[in-house]
Amino acid sequence: MIAIHHPWVFTFGLLGNIISFMVFLAPVPTFIRICKKKSTEGFHSVPYVIAIFSCMLWIYYALLKGNTILLITINTAGIVIETIYIAIFITYAPKQAKISTLKLLMLLNFCGFCAIVLLCHYLAKGDARVQAFGWVCVAFSISVFAAPLSIMRKVIRTKSVEYMPFNLSLSLTLTAVIWFTYGMLKKDLYITLPNVGGFVFGVAQMILYGIYRKHDKGAQKQKLPEQVQVSTSAKHSSVEIHPINSPLSGAVTPTSQAAPEEIEVVVGIPENEEGKIVHEDLLHRLPVGPPCNVDAKKIIGGPGPASTQLVECAV
Description:
Layout: H1 7-24, H2 28-37, H3 46-65, H4 69-92, H5 95-123, H6 127-145, H7 149-158, H8 166-186, H9 189-236, E1 238-243, E2 262-268, E3 308-312
Antiparallel strand pairs: 1-2, 2-3
Helix pairs in contact: 1-4, 1-8, 2-4, 3-4, 3-5, 3-6, 4-5, 5-6, 6-9, 7-9, 8-9
């Protein structure tokens, strides 16, 4: 079944199997996290159901076409891997998500696939059947390759590449190039055409990544000085509280009076080298110190640099 007299066909088919297999394994970390947390965390099962459907189409096309064992091997592996993903998703998904996934599997992967196979089988004969099913595979594959357009639109709108990993875009582009070459060497139009679209969309994603990756780095650099400024001002602001009759205040209160004890609150306001206040909003904040029953109405003195505020504690 393998064309030995075309070694390059086998070489590119084998490379396509290896890279496509790695792409199929890309969601493994996601499902490991789902198993650990026992929750799907808002993930959707639609991409995995569609991947199974695509693999089923290509396997049936390969059986009709003949001499395409490498196309069968990778899509069989894809069905097994994606089925495991779906099983894990159904295990930990909420009830409504489980029902939606099962409905989609029934409608698309069973009813839809059977309908396409029956129509092609009874409405076309011989080579016409292969051509009809080949165009079905082309149309569906192009629609799958075009699915990342929504992600690309989100990247442009948010100016962030958080939702579009570069490694995945690169892998999809390489896969499209290899399978395109495989189709060209086999002179199979139905394998070649969809991978042209895959290559175009993959390159577009990498270009967007190169453009908006710089924007992400610039945004991070702009945020960094603000964080440093806040932490610096927090270190330089200080509050001291000591009784009025202590040696630090320079005043003596007669001991014969039974009046409540007064304390002196000294608030240090951070200043820069030119003597200007760094943050004026700190002037209007209440001083922070040891807990005591302070009546806010008895605060004497106004805010200002190195100002002294007298607070009468009702203790």
